Amino acid sequence: MAAPAIPQIRLGLIGTGLAVEKLHWPALRQLADRYVVTAFTDRSAEQSKRFAEYSGTGPARATADRAALLARDDVDAVLISVPIPHLYEVARDSLVAGKDVLCEKPTGVDAEQAADFLALAAAHPDRTFVVGENFFYRDDLRYARALLDDGAIGRPHLMAWRHAGQMVPREGRFTGTPWRQRPQYRGGVHLDAGVHHIAQIRLLCGDVARVHGAVQAANRTMDAPSDLTLNLVFTGGAIGNYTAVYSEIPVPPEPDDMRLYGTEGVLVLDGSGAERRVTCSSSDATTRTTVFRGIDNGYRAELVDFADAVQFGVRPVGSVAQSVANAMVVQRALDSAERAAALALDPVPGAGPVPLWRPRGSTGLFDGLPGQRISSSASFAA
């Protein structure tokens, strides 16, 4: 006799803006066996109507406000996609209402609110509470982490990454959001987008022990620092540098790759969302490159992990503590820049090294996941 089907998670959406349209809904519609959207709400009637139309969910499931949504018995869990300054209050209200919560990143507007997020999670141990970090679930990054765990480049001792590009307001894109242009959260784009990069760094390099940062404002379209350069010392002994430049003017094409130098080889991660590459070189000057196509940058796997936590009690990778650990690297970098001094980072309770996510019940990295992975070998010997 076949096992009984697991009931879908009845999901309420609080906020239906660009993050839902571009990131979460494309993943949700692939997971109809795990989720059904039973209610949604947005402060913008236009956005609410747009979601109802493109998703096929229908306007009957729209609610007047989040209080009405949270009062519904047919909502088991909520996906919170509201501006950063409102994430904490909406997450708090949702947990108090007895809902499981998947909340957009980051954990609050500053270090103090990050601590509030930790306290909020501790106050609701009976609920699944995840703060989204899709980089923890990206196929290329998980593959790179597995190579490192297997000792493919020996002991990593140096990380180098420079991310540069133009960032100006554009209609219909994340940069066109008014609350991002005049952010009411410390660090601006380096907290909003930068926590993704910090998540990648922590996933691959381990926790950060000390930072020394510098910032400056060189982009008149954003009311926040546009440039950040950060020297890092990792708890495992490696060192590294991360530089992020969000320019007002166009930036000529340049490599946007992360390089990890080890005692026995080098790992290079590059590419875009459409095609990501992981190249591992060995001490004999041979390389193996794996190309990833058709992956959704981790959003589907993130939703699977959340569903597994709700339905099976699996401990999710994207915990509140892990998100706080990401955010605190940014916050201490800003502290360091203000004080012109290298600063230590205190361990975040409940965080520790980022676990490597695998599909539940699987020993493989990609079992049951969509996407194409192609590997090839070469040599760079003279």
Description of the structure:
By secondary structure, this protein is α/β, with parallel strands linked by helices. It has two domains: 9-133 and 300-318, 3-Layer(aba) Sandwich (Rossmann fold), CATH 3.40.50.720; 136-297 and 372-379, Dihydrodipicolinate Reductase, domain 2 (2-Layer Sandwich). It contains eleven helices and 15 strands. The protein has helices at 18-28, 45-55, 66-70, 87-96, 111-123, 139-149, 178-181, 189-192, 194-205, 299-312, 320-339, and strands at residues 9-14, 35-41, 77-80, 100-103, 129-131, 156-166, 208-216, 227-234, 239-247, 258-262, 265-271, 275-282, 286-293, 343-344, 372-379. Strand 12 (275-282) and strand 13 form a beta hairpin. The longest helix has 20 residues, at 320-339. It is globular, with a radius of gyration of 21 Å. The model has no long low-confidence stretch (mean pLDDT 95).
Number of domains: 2
Lateral arrangement of strands in the main beta sheet: 14-7-8-9-6-10-11-12-13-15
Number of helical elements: 11
Percent in helix: 25-40%
Whole-angstrom Rg: 21 Å
**Number of E strands:** 15
Proportion of β residues?
Answer: 25-35%
Which CATH class of the largest domain is shown?
Answer: Alpha Beta
N-to-C SSE string, H for helix and E for strand:
EHEHHEHEHEHEHHHEEEEEEEHHEE
- Regions with pLDDT < 50 over 5+ consecutive residues? none
Question: In CATH, what is the homologous superfamily of the largest domain?
Answer: Dihydrodipicolinate Reductase, domain 2
